[in-house]
Amino acid sequence: MWDESGEFEEILCPFCNTKSEDGCEHVLLHVDVTFGQCIDGAAQQMETQIGDRITEAFQGHLIAGRNPQWCHYEMQELWDNVLIDYTGDPADITIPRRSFYDLIFAILGEAGGDEHQGRLVSGSGPYSESAVRLMYAQNPTEACEKALPVLDKYLLVEKLQPPPQADRQ
Q: Is 52 within the bounds of a domain?
């Protein structure tokens, strides 16, 4: 894995200077943005739990006919992107991976994670590269423990507006 935003530097852990390819105990989250999947990290197991809680909250608002304005930008962006493909059936919502990972990285950043900035790329073979995002933490277990209370804060609503209208054809 390397950073293309400068001199194609190899990515090192900011805490122990281990090469990203070698992995270390400080990796909080490693996401392949190109394919929309979590690759590694202490927070990898939280992906489903966070997604389920968000889906449940979104479905609750849709069933109740509410269109919340969220307190946090990343949650609002995710909600807005869900509404783009909303068919009118709250049980059938799609959570867009890119916006979802933006939200997770914001939550983990607030919980103590440190995202490696730059344009990160990982190669998996000839002519096969993926854009990636990588976050470290001094204590990944502690950051994971703090993440769910941060998620609760992100699920707070600023105000409610009239319900979204699904495109019906």
A: yes
57 domain residue, yes or no:
yes
In the Cβ-directed half-sphere of 92, how many Cα atoms lie within 13 Å?
Answer: 6
Other C-beta atoms lying within 10 Å of the C-beta of residue 27? 21
Domain range for 137: 25-158
Query: How many domains does the chain contain in total?
Result: 1
Strands 27-32 and 37-40: antiparallel
Predicted pLDDT of residue 166: 53
Pairwise CA distance, residues 54 & 165, whole Å: 20
CA angle 143–138–52, rounded 5-degree value? 25
d(CA 24, CA 1): 14
The pLDDT tens digits for 98-149 are 999 999 999 999 999 999 887 778 876 566 778 889 999 999 999 999 999 9
